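Lecture notes, unit on protein representations.

Consider one protein chain, 320 amino acids long.
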Amino acid sequence: MSRVVSAAALPFDVAAVLGDATEYVAPAAGRMARDALLAAAADADALITLLRDEVNDALLDAAPRLRIVANCAVGYDNVDVAACTRRGIAVTNTPGVLTEATADFAFALMLAAARRVVEGDAMVRGGTWTGWEPGQLLGVPVAGATLGIIGLGRIGQAVARRARGFDMTVLYAGPREVAAAGELGARRVTLAELWAASDFVSVCCPLDDSTHHIVDAAALAAMKPTAILVNTSRGPCVDEAALARALADGIIAGAGLDVYEREPDVDPGLRTSGRAVLAPHAGSATTTTRAKMAEICARAVRDALEGRRPETVVNPEIYA
């Protein structure tokens, strides 16, 4: 009997997809601690992991039977893909399914930061609101503004589609021209041009060596003082300490963040900033999206254990 270990409780009946010939092990709630995951992996044929689970040589050495790592996320920089490939272990992810939910959330953060929703909510709840005043909580307009998107992939394109409903001018920066840009009304520019021209900057790129701290102190200094930064991609794309300083010094007007460099830790300067909207990595947090992510992982595991190439495999060379 094959043994499948999930690092976390998932909002989907994984065992039903795997079938009776597979033993499914998962915590009743929450997620496994690292030591528990290492112990459970010892006789696992498959692992379902989260972005916070580091799949490295230490874990792989502890799991000699492992045939697949199904990462329940679009990104997979927590997985040493090369190490898995050397061992003939498939690595899969969950692309596409969370595109619309994450784009919705990017716009939610953009609107909340622009219109200072969190600050207003705190005033009302705290009893400090004394009534309507003409100069109270003045924000910046979204409709008709210029939106700069870093990375016009699936999520970036979905953000651009939503921007059209707000009559926004859309710019994007990336390593190559994107065929869909024309129909989205998006124009490719350099990063320098994007920083200077954008009223809002939405980070939608994957994390790699070229995008680590792509938003740094120099980038923030090049932005408009009225600009707002939104990050729903990966935390290390933004230099958190530099962003905290930029908000404190009025270099930019605000930020909406869903991801962080060292989750769940967040830079203290961001925690205390009244101009930062901070969400708990909730971009894909809809019931349907999270269930579909878990289902994709379950199907990938089933396919791998039954000798088929999973549809979402990121290292297909092991099947060559």
